Amino acid sequence: xSKFLHKMEVTLLAFMLILIRTKAQSDSTCIFQNLASGYTxxxxxxxxxxxxxxxxxxxxxxxxxxxxxVTELSTSLFPPPNQPNxxxxxxxxxRRFPNLMSLQLWNASVGSLMGVENCDNLESIDLLFxxxxxxPRFAFGxxxxxxxxxxxxxxIEIFHPEALRMLTSLESLTLVHTMxxxxxxxxxxxxxxxxxxxxxxxxxxxxxSELFKMLSKLENINLSENFIxxxxxxxxxxxxxxxNLWLNNxxxxxxxxxxxxxxxxLEVLHLHNNRIARLSSSYVTPMPRLHTLTIDNNLISAIxxxxxxxxxxxxxxxxxxxxxxxxxxxxxxxxLNWEAEIGTTTQTTTQTTTxxxxxxxxxxxxxxxxxxxxxxxxxxxxxGSMISIPIxxxxxxxxxxxxxxxxx
Length: 408
Ligand SMILES: *[C@@H]1O[C@H](CO)[C@@H](O)[C@H](O)[C@H]1NC(C)=O
Ligand SMILES: *[C@@H]1O[C@H](CO)[C@@H](O)[C@H](O)[C@H]1NC(C)=O
Ligand SMILES: *[C@@H]1O[C@H](CO)[C@@H](O)[C@H](O)[C@H]1NC(C)=O
Ligand SMILES: *[C@@H]1O[C@H](CO)[C@@H](O)[C@H](O)[C@H]1NC(C)=O
What we know:
The protein is of the alpha/beta class. 12% of the residues lie in helices and 22% in strands. The chain starts with a helix and ends in a 12-residue tail after the last helix.
């Protein structure tokens, strides 16, 4: 009998210990701070392992403040040992702080994006350094007012085609350092307000032709440090306000015809550290605002002579570490190689007009170092006076050669 009682006592004790332990594990604490950016909860300690687990947040408010004043919640990137362990983003966060606008859960063990709700007021979510593997369907579906979303340094492999479907207010999307190999077609179709898309350092190998077609406000695309080997025809078509495009540090060996069409606002195009072999005018339509083109550290051996005429305002061209040229002075060899490959040396006239709608005739070649350029006269009649200028000086007059290579 006493033996039995003793056994019961032990069991009870063990049970209570488990209870205490569970309770101790589930409480997080806010360190409240009144920062310039807003009244902030820095979240420490606590864990939330399964959806629906008990989870509460403790903490002493600063004088005059209460839960409704909290607009930011964050964890630190280089955590003290008391970093919270949040398998899921607890719904309690949004219940407790109804006016939360910014959620920055760095390095907080977030393994799944399921179960996020009641986050209408949220404008910014930053989840860098978390171990989630999936962007599920309607991720953050309840947070339709998010303008800024950052996810990165996560082993994400699965990108559901409708993961971002509800984020119609998104202005900036950062999705970097993941294992994503493919952006599913249509994945960005509802992001009509998107201005900046950072997809740097993923494992993306190709870009669907229609991927960006709905993103009429897109100004910046960063696709650097991926495994892209080919730029599909019209991959970037009709991005009327695109200003900066990073495609450097990929495996690009080929552009389809019309790869860079209708990019009238493009100012900076980074193509360095790829395997590009040839540059043809058929890849591009004129880019009147382009001032910087980096094509250094490629395998370029031939360039169509009128290629650079598409960039009348180019100021910086990086071309070092290529096969046919290391400097702008050596470009002639690239043109000659092209002409040798084509096998024709027809003297032709290249047309450039102020309306940038005309496509460049892909068969045009010139045989001398002098190109005949037809320009539209200032009175805008378009009658065109014929001027003959040495092609090198006409095209590259303001170019700056930089010998230093940009190391990968
Ligand atoms: C906190 O929010 C309440 C309700 O909006 C407001 O009345 C109060 O002034 C705020 N406190 C501070 C310190 O801003
Ligand atoms: C994340 O937190 C762990 C400790 O919990 C730490 O060892 C690691 O360095 C942190 N990672 C980053 C990127 O800060
Ligand atoms: C957070 O946890 C650590 C131990 O992990 C403990 O020493 C500390 O008191 C806790 N802080 C709060 C505010 O609960
Ligand atoms: C894109 O990536 C490059 C490095 O490859 C970096 O220098 C640049 O700042 C990035 N731009 C954006 C908008 O993220």
